[in-house]
């Protein structure tokens, strides 16, 4: 099939590349000319494990091309995916302007009947708005499909190629048939393609993210309770995770959730609910706990030192999670800003997000070190914010000589508390009461 993907970000680039990998001809379009130039020159604008090799192969075999021209991307396309951003607008609502403008541009450039697929995370009812936008300008018939994306940054290729399930909202047989054909190579191990109505598909994406965010905030609240009651949250986590009704994923306490999806999607659900007269109280608490949790590291350090004024704090990890360079709503931003606000100096390291961080903290005096131990040099304490693998087994003896004071604040509970304490460090973990 000939496929157009509109929006070549984390989702669009992965989607386009994976469809090309199964033999389709894919044109990825973006309005960001620099992004398209980078891709055309053989570069990858984002960090995502395995993506570069896949893009390169499909470009070489002429199944994958990049453009800024709607005429080029949409002309002849049988399927057009919309994968543009849906950032939070005013009042927490998802901002649909990019989706609707993409829909209109697609409509204007159709040269044949086309299935238009909404892959962006959009509020319930958006498919109808997309159909309206297309209908105003299109000269050819179209079907609108909702196909929310569940990939995780850092494991996006694997998630796309081997999804737990594919959710497809359809209102026509043609839309259903085209989507079944497109996804057939990815669901050979009998993962379900769940066809449903458009509104249910749109809400399923938000429900999934809201549920995962709820698990995280639940565990962060439980960690706070453990700290006060003298229990150890790791043991409690193992104890409940082994229950098959609960399971282990997303039960890790830490410094709060971030990224481009969970915070905005939680807010979007609350806004959608409010519009129909429902107060989604539970999610308000999820958000409140998360905001508090993002302050945990700075509060612990302040309590330890009395004041952070004039102190130097090393920060390991800036990306919102490991294996990505994405810092959108990363807890590290709150941590660094909290430290600067308290008068501390910050020396930080992240294996891949440094370039993003330079732009984000521009002119604010944050030192970005090339490697983790350089960040720790001369610092009064070290905070772990993102649990990159390379931070999991630190050289404690080396850290001891580099840090001015042996204080470790483990925002992700990855260090062996007993071991670091035995090495002479003062250790703080989230909800960990272990000696
Ligand atoms: P992104 O910001 O990385 O990419 C969006 C791209 O769309 C940008 O490159 C932007 O220049 C481009 N764009 C904006 N308006 C355009 C237009 N009119 N025409 C063409 N291109 C346009 O965003 P993302 O992280 O890929 O997210 C895209 C959508 O997918 C969002 O709705 C998001 O919530 C959802 N989603 C994201 C993830 C994730 O992990 N990032 C996972 C699942 C779903």
Structural account:
With 435 residues, the chain is an alpha/beta fold. The chain has helices at residues 10-21, 33-40, 51-60, 70-74, 97-109, 126-137, 156-161, 173-183, 198-229, 233-241, 262-275, 281-294, 296-305, 331-341, 354-360, 372-376, 396-402, 417-422; strands spanning 2-6, 25-29, 64-67, 79-82, 114-118, 142-146, 166-169, 193-196, 312-316, 345-349, 367-368, 381-384, 407-410, 426-429. The mean pLDDT is 97. The protein has three domains: 2-196, Rossmann fold (3-Layer(aba) Sandwich), CATH 3.40.50.720; 205-291, N-(1-d-carboxylethyl)-l-norvaline Dehydrogenase, domain 2, CATH 1.10.1040.10; 294-429, 3-Layer(aba) Sandwich (Rossmann fold). The structure holds nicotinamide-adenine-dinucleotide. The site of nicotinamide-adenine-dinucleotide has 26 residues, from α1 and α5.
Task: Give the SSE map.
Elements: E1 2-6, H1 10-21, E2 25-29, H2 33-40, H3 51-60, E3 64-67, H4 70-74, E4 79-82, H5 97-109, E5 114-118, H6 126-137, E6 142-146, H7 156-161, E7 166-169, H8 173-183, E8 193-196, H9 198-229, H10 233-241, H11 262-275, H12 281-294, H13 296-305, E9 312-316, H14 331-341, E10 345-349, H15 354-360, E11 367-368, H16 372-376, E12 381-384, H17 396-402, E13 407-410, H18 417-422, E14 426-429
Parallel strand pairs: 1-2, 1-4, 2-3, 4-5, 5-6, 7-8, 9-10, 9-12, 10-11, 12-13, 13-14
Helix pairs in contact: 1-3, 5-6, 9-11, 9-12, 11-12
The protein binds nicotinamide-adenine-dinucleotide (NAD).
Nicotinamide-adenine-dinucleotide binds next to helix 1 and helix 5.
């Amino acid at each position: 099939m000939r496929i157009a993907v509109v929006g070549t970000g984390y989702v669009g680039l992965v989607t386009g590349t994976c469809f090309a990998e199964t033999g389709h001809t894919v044109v990825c379009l973006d309005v960001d000319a620099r992004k398209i130039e980078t891709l055309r020159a053989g570069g990858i604008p984002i960090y995502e494990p395995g993506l570069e090799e896949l893009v390169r192969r499909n470009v070489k075999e002429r199944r994958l091309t990049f453009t800024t021209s709607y005429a080029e991307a949409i002309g002849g396309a049988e399927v057009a995916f919309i994968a543009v951003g849906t950032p939070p607008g005013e009042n927490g609502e998802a901002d649909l302007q990019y989706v609707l403008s993409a829909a209109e541009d697609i409509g204007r450039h159709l040269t044949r009947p086309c299935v238009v697929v909404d892959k962006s995370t959009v509020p319930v009812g958006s498919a109808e708005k997309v159909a309206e936008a297309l209908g105003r300008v299109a000269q050819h018939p179209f079907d609108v499909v909702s196909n929310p994306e569940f990939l995780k940054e850092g494991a996006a290729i694997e998630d796309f190629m081997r999804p737990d399930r594919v959710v497809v909202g359809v209102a026509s047989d043609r839309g259903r048939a085209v989507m079944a054909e497109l996804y057939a190579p990815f669901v050979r191990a009998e993962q379900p393609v769940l066809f449903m109505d458009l509104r249910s598909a749109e809400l399923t994406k938000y429900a999934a993210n809201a549920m995962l965010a709820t698990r995280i905030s639940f565990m962060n609240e439980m960690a706070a309770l453990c700290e006060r009651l003298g229990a150890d949250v790791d043991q409690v986590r193992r104890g409940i995770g082994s229950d098959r009704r609960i399971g282990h994923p997303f039960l890790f306490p830490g410094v709060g959730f971030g990224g481009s999806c969970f915070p905005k999607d939680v807010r979007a659900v609350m806004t959608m609910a409010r519009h129909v007269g429902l107060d989604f109280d539970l999610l308000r608490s999820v958000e409140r706990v998360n905001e508090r949790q993002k302050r945990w590291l700075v509060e612990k350090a302040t309590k330890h030192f009395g004041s952070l004024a004039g102190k130097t704090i090393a920060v390991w990890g800036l990306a919102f999670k490991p294996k990505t360079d994405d810092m959108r709503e990363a807890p590290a931003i709150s941590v660094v800003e909290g430290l600067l606000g308290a008068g501390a100096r910050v020396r930080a390291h992240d294996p891949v997000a440094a370039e993003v961080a330079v732009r984000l903290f521009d002119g604010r005096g944050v030192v970005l070190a090339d490697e983790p131990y350089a960040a720790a040099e001369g610092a009064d304490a070290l905070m772990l914010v993102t649990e990159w693998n390379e931070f999991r087994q630190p050289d404690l003896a080396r850290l001891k000589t580099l840090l001015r004071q042996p204080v470790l604040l483990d925002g992700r509970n990855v260090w062996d508390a007993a071991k670091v304490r035995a090495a002479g460090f003062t250790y703080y973990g989230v909800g960990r009461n272990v000696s």
